[in-house]
Amino acid sequence: MDSEGMDREGNAAIGSDPQLSSRRSLLTSIFQRCRDDPKGAVHRSWAMSLVFMTLIVIVGIFVAIGMGKNGGPKSLQFAAIWTALIQFFMAIVGTFILRRFPTHFSIGFLLGLVIVVAQQNIITFATLNDYYYYSTSRTLANLSLIMFFCNIVFAVMLYYFRAHILIQVDDKNTRMGEQAPGGDYENYDDVEESDVN
């Protein structure tokens, strides 16, 4: 066990709390197939999310253009464009965090972002689902519902396997084994004002 109560596999110590024990056993049974390659499982679930994000971006643009040509509501045009922009932003940020910068803070940020975007997706589904006369809006609504479920599954997987994703950082905020860039500011001599003038 380490200082955060995690064992070697990255699971929290169950202890004597029966509610925590039942939640852990449920997650353990759900993610049993992913135990051999947890980092790969998280990356594969993100790749699946990226596929649906790309589809939402493309369909969102078509919905906005189609509603503009057919005199559709401006608010729904804005909603389609905003949904496409948010998905595009989340694809870039999430990929950067998972591939290059998986620290405690950035993983927490990504988890929060995924949950917020999942809520936006369920609102987009509820909003666009009633517009039957725009076939692409119904497609965007259904994709948003699918993306909601993808986001929730990804968030749970990322939370459960977060210890396997995190990079190890030492005291100087560099990856273990790497040399700190530049130098250490404590080793530099103080410059007095008289030396500068």
Task: Please specify the SSE layout and strand pairing.
Blueprint: H1 18-30, H2 38-69, H3 74-100, H4 104-128, H5 135-160, H6 162-165, H7 193-196
Helix pairs in contact: 2-3, 2-5, 3-4, 4-5
If you had to describe this structure to a student in words, what would you say it looks like?
The protein has seven helices and no strands. It has 197 residues and is mostly helical. Helix 2 packs antiparallel against helix 3, helix 3 (74-100) runs antiparallel to helix 4 and helix 4 (104-128) runs antiparallel to helix 5 (135-160). The radius of gyration is 23 Å and the shape is elongated. The protein starts with 17 loop residues before the first helix and ends with a helix. The relative contact order is 0.12.
Rg, nearest Å = 23 Å
Which structural class fits the helix and strand makeup? mainly alpha
**Main sheet?**
none
Flag low-confidence runs: 1-6, 10-15, 177-185, 187-194
Q: How many strand units?
A: 0
Can you tag this structure with a few keywords?
single chain; about 200 residues; mainly alpha; 7 helices; disordered N terminus
In short:
The chain has 197 residues and is mainly α. The protein has helices spanning 18-30, 38-69, 74-100, 104-128, 135-160, 162-165, 193-196. Helices cover 66% and strands 0% of the residues.
